[in-house]
Design goal:
With about 160 residues, this protein is α/β, with parallel strands linked by helices. Helix content is about 20%, strand content about 25%. It has a domain of about 90 residues: Sandwich (Immunoglobulin-like), CATH 2.60.40.420. It is rod-shaped, with a radius of gyration of 29 Å.
Length: about 160
């Protein structure tokens, strides 16, 4: 019972959680890589993106089956197919250059690269308070704290 009373008092004094404490995240851009008219090249074959962006490998109705596989296994669109719709998002901390190939056509030059640049630093949340935003202790919260203090001191004196 005592922890419940203390928790209630703490919530009353703080006014509950103030503001949104979750990390804000913005949706990144999506870059589409397809297959060109020769059916043996990615289009575009080289892209530059920022951490948080997504690369979507998309082709439909191709005469030859293709896939997109990163050389170090970071992403893999699966078995070669004539219709592919595969996306991969490069999270924060994944900056660098990623080379990828179409496995059946790598020897014919169906290769590409993705350069991932570091994302800008996350903004530091600043809290501006005004007179209206400033939490205050209500009369009820003050009375509850006073009662709790009296209750605890009475118990200690009575048990002592």
């Amino acid at each position: 019972m005592r922890p419940l009373i203390l928790l209630s008092v703490m919530l009353l004094l703080t006014g509950g959680l103030q503001g949104d404490l979750s990390e804000s995240s913005s949706d990144g851009e999506t870059v589409v890589i397809g297959v060109d008219s020769t059916n043996l090249r990615f289009s575009p074959s080289s892209v530059t993106i920022t951490e948080g962006d997504t690369v979507r490998f998309f082709w439909s109705g191709q005469s030859l089956p293709h896939n997109a596989v990163e050389n170090n296994g970071v992403f893999d669109s699966g078995e070669p197919a004539r219709n592919v719709d595969y996306s991969f998002t490069f999270e924060r901390g994944s900056n660098g250059t990623y080379e990828f190939v179409c496995e059946p056509h790598a020897s014919m030059g169906m290769v590409g690269d993705i350069t991932v640049e570091p994302a800008p630093p996350l903004p530091v949340a600043t809290v501006e308070t005004t007179a209206e935003d400033t939490p205050s202790v209500s009369l009820f919260a003050t009375a509850a704290v006073m009662f709790l203090a009296w209750s605890l001191s009475s118990r200690r004196q009575g048990n002592g």
